[in-house]
Amino acid sequence: MDWGRAKSVLILAFLLLNAVLGYQLWMEWRERIDSAVDWTSLSPETRQLMTNKGIRIDSEIPTEMPLMRELTYRLKDSPASAEGEPTPLDPPPNTRIVFSEEELQQSLGGTIPELAKYRFDNPGSNEKMFVLNRVEGDWPIFDVRVELYYQNQKITGYRQDRIDSVTFGSEKPQKVLPATQAVDKLIKNYLPAGSAIKEIELGYHGQMFDSETQVSIPSWRVLLEDGEVYYVNANSGEVVTDRADPSGEKPAADGVAGIGG
């Protein structure tokens, strides 16, 4: 055996391996940088206020500003919005299926009506249940959802809001307010010291009334680490606060107020 040649081959292979690993590390670093919060998108005043109040943002600040308009729908069933026992699942599927749309459909698509129209809401889920939001026009309706209750890594039951007759308003679609503006104003006017923003997402939200027909408005959902939720009207800038419920039940609207500043 030509040991000199073998040694050269081993050295070359080692160098190539280092190059590959180095490239992978560089790509991972770039992905982290790309997904980091763009602090410069917030005003200097807000960034200083965050420092003073100990507020942090653990989520990307979305940059999309699509044209959207309000939608209306008819509420067929709303057990997920009210009290009552979940519908049991027998046999109970493994919890891992929620992380795969295909597995979820295979396991529960024949049991839960129109399940394909709902999308997993990981940030909105908790230690008692997984949440899936009804999707319309690629945007979630935060008030219409499926709740999958689980324990011991098994999904034991579900509750589901069902709707039909979904229509968009006749008004001209408006470009939504940027997420940075919503976050900026929340920090200045609403968030208490020590708050941590867990997630920021665009979708639809509306105050639920005792009526079959509901109206849902384009809104930014700002979810805090402690479970409290703020919905910022993506057209007018008004805010609805949903207080966290320790029981894990769907929270009710706490109040509506215009944002100043």
From TrEMBL:
GO CC term (a single one): membrane
Domain Regulatory protein YycH-like: residue ranges: 110-234
Protein name: Two-component system regulatory protein YycI
Basic and acidic residues: compositionally biased ranges: 241-252
Residue segments, region Disordered: 241-261
Natural source organism: Cohnella zeiphila
Matches recorded under InterPro entries: YycI-like
Highest taxon, organism lineage: Bacteria
